[in-house]
Specification:
Layout: E1 2-5, E2 8-20, H1 22-25, H2 37-40, E3 50-61, E4 64-68, H3 92-98, E5 108-110, H4 116-119, E6 123-126, E7 129-132, E8 138-142, H5 143-149, H6 159-162, H7 164-168, E9 172-175, E10 179-180, E11 185-189, E12 198-204, E13 207-211, H8 220-223, H9 235-249, E14 254-257, E15 266-267, E16 269-271, E17 277-279
Parallel strand pairs: 4-5, 5-8, 8-9, 13-14
Antiparallel strand pairs: 1-2, 2-3, 3-4, 6-7, 10-11, 11-12, 12-13, 14-15, 16-17
C-alpha cells in the first residue's frame, strides 16, 4: 500500500500479524469494544479480538529513503514472552526490495522505540555475526530509550542482537525529541510505552501525517486514551501522551498511520455531532 502526504510517499510492508483479546492487550475491567464497532470492525477479528500487524513504514521524501521500525527479524529468539516471534523465516527483505527499498538503498532507519518487534531487522545474521541489514543507513534512536534498555534484562529487550552491533560500528544517532530528521520529517516525543518513545511527523506541501509507533496498538486507544496496553512501561505517562496527542490530532486534517493497525491502517480522528470520537 502507498499513500501521498504532500510530496512524501508512505508505503507499508507487513512482516507478521497477531490477534489479541482486548482484555489481554488492555488489562482493565472496563474494556468493552461494543460501543465502537461501527468504525472499529476493520481492526477486529471475526471473533471480535483486536487485530495487529507488525509492519515497516517506508517513507520517500526529501531525496531520502527512510524505514520507520524494522519489525521482528528472521532467526531471532526472544524466549517465551511472544513465542510466535521466535525463529521467523519471512520474505521481508524481498518484499522491502519489491517496494523499492532494497537494503543497500536505505538512507535512514528510524526506531520509534527499542522493543523487539520494532528493531529486529536492524541486523541480520551473517557468518555467525549480527551485522547491519541496511549497510548505508544511519540508525536514529532516542537517547532515553538507548539509556533505558542498556540496563533492562527481560524478554522484550533485543538490545544485544539488534542494537549493540550498530553501536559498536558507530551507526547510531542518539537524539532528543523534538528532532528534525529532514526538511519534511521530525520526531516528536510520545513517552509512556517506553521512556523515550517517539512518533514520526511528516509535513509536506501543507499536508501532515503522524506515524504512531506504539503510542497506540489499536485506534480505540485514541478514543479511550486511558486504556493503556499491557506492554506500556509507564501506563499513566502513556495515557497522558494519548490525551495530548488526541488534542493535537483530533478534528484536524492529519493522517494517522497506526504502526500496528491492519488495513485500512490510516485514518483521521474526528468527532460526530454528539461529540463522540471515531477513527475513520
Amino acid at each position: 500500500m502507498a499513500w501521498h502526504v504532500g510530496a512524501a510517499m508512505i508505503q507499508t510492508v507487513t512482516e507478521t500479524e497477531a490477534v489479541a483479546p482486548a482484555e489481554i492487550l488492555i488489562p482493565r475491567p472496563d474494556v468493552d469494544l461494543t460501543p465502537y464497532k461501527s468504525w472499529l470492525t476493520p481492526f477486529l477479528s471475526p471473533e471480535g479480538h483486536i487485530r495487529m500487524i507488525v509492519q515497516a513504514m517506508l517513507l520517500s521524501v526529501d531525496g531520502l529513503r527512510i524505514v520507520v521500525d524494522t519489525c521482528v527479524g528472521n532467526g531471532k529468539n526472544y524466549g517465551p514472552t511472544v513465542p510466535t516471534f521466535n525463529d521467523l523465516d519471512t520474505p521481508f527483505l524481498e518484499n522491502l526490495t519489491a517496494a523499492g527499498f532494497a537494503p543497500d538503498s536505505v538512507d535512514l532507519v528510524v526506531c520509534t522505540h527499542l522493543h523487539m518487534d520494532h528493531v529486529g531487522w536492524n541486523t541480520m545474521l551473517m557468518d555467525g555475526e549480527w551485522v547491519p541489514t541496511f549497510p548505508r543507513a544511519r540508525y536514529v534512536m532516542s537517547r532515553a530509550d538507548l539509556e533505558h534498555w542498556q540496563h533492562v534484562l527481560d524478554d522484550w529487550n533485543p538490545f544485544e542482537v539488534s542494537v549493540q552491533p550498530l553501536l559498536a560500528r558507530g551507526l547510531v544517532d542518539a537524539i532528543d525529541p523534538p528532532h528534525q530528521v529532514s526538511a519534511s520529517v521530525s520526531l516528536i516525543s510520545t513517552p509512556g510505552h517506553t521512556p523515550g518513545h517517539v512518533s514520526v511527523q511528516v509535513d509536506s506541501n501543507g499536508s501532515r501525517a503522524v506515524i504512531t509507533g506504539d503510542m497506540v496498538h489499536s485506534p480505540v486507544q485514541l478514543v479511550r486514551p486511558e486504556w493503556s496496553s499491557l506492554s506500556d512501561v509507564d501506563p499513566d505517562e502513556a495515557r497522558r501522551t494519548r490525551e495530548r496527542m488526541r488534542k493535537q490530532l483530533g478534528n484536524h486534517d492529519v493522517l494517522i498511520f497506526g504502526t500496528h493497525f491492519p488495513l485500512p491502517t490510516v485514518g483521521r480522528l474526528v468527532t460526530d455531532a454528539a461529540g463522540e470520537w471515531s477513527f475513520v
